[in-house]
Amino acid sequence: MTDSLRFACTGCGKCCTGHHVPLTLSEARQWADAGGQVVVLIEAFVTDGPGMPAEQRDHVLRRSHPVPCGSGEARVSVTFAAFNPGRCRNLDDNDLCTIYEQRPLVCRIYPVEINPHIPLRPESKDCPPEAWQQGPQLIHGTQLLDAGLEALVQASRQADRDDIAAKVAVCQRLGMTTSAVKGNGFTAYLPDMGAFATALSQVAETDGERWTLHVENEALVSDLQAWGMQTTSEPPVYYAFIGF
User: Fold this and answer.
1) pTM (2 decimals)?
2) N vs C: which end of the chain shows fewer Cβ within 10 Å?
């Protein structure tokens, strides 16, 4: 990463194609109400154990929620994302956003990273080279120079923290209680959107829902079981395991 980065959107539409856009809880409701599909991505870790990135401890703890797993406790992070395997459903024929004034928070923040431990690297983005050769200075060193953009980043991080208990409750209500381990992969669910919308409207924590961790690495299975975690390596039926 360079000490200084400039940026100006070229309107190419590439960031709106082939990307599942993380949504806040209220944005997920809006997406569902508009007829969109949501994908649910889940990862888990054990506090100060498997899956816990020590250098990100505070960040991951604040955006996760404790759940019973086996004889122990796991913490899960849940992402509700707009399902966009191709072009975003809100792009018009000229690659312009038809919901620009109401677009999700993450779209407003792009290309800045939400995770404070991930630096912005132009080579990891879809933007053409000229996007990084024009416009105002965006970042100097590690400092984001746009105060308005910084406020949006902080709002997104806070939404992750505020929404996580409700997101876990929705998952439990819909039976989405198998997670991958952070750093090893995600479990991905494509819920029926009618059931998803109903669960969103009836958010309440449920008791007694026990979680399982999908792990295919034998060494990691052994490590997790030593912590009392319940694991499975059976081929998934109702979700996909996306391994790293």
Assistant:
1) 0.94
2) C
Mean pLDDT, all residues of the chain: 94
Question: Where does residue 64 fall: left (phi above 0), alpha (psi -120 to 50 degrees), or beta otherwise?
Answer: beta
Q: Taking the CB of residue 112, how many other CB atoms lie within 10 A of it?
A: 19
Whole-number Å distance between alpha carbons of 62 and 220? 24
Laid out side by side, the sheet with 4-6 consists of 4-6, 137-140, 143-144
- Report how far residue 71's alpha carbon sits from residue 63's, in angstroms, rounded to the nearest whole number: 23
Buried b (16+ CB within 10 A) or exposed e, 201-239: eebeeeeeeebbbbbbeeebbebbbebebbbeeeeeeeb
List, for residues 123-177, the tens digit of each pLDDT value.
Answer: 999 999 999 999 999 998 889 999 999 999 999 999 999 999 999 999 999 999 9
Tokens 């590439």 found at = 14
Q: In this structure, what token pair is assigned to residue 46?
A: 């054990």
Confidence grade of residue 2 (pLDDT, cut at 50, 70, 90): low
Q: Which of 143, 168, 210, 154 is nearest to 65 (CA)?
A: 168
Separation of alpha carbons 222 and 209, rounded Å:
23
Which of 225, 188, 233 minimizes the C-alpha distance to 40? Answer: 188
pLDDT at 141: 83
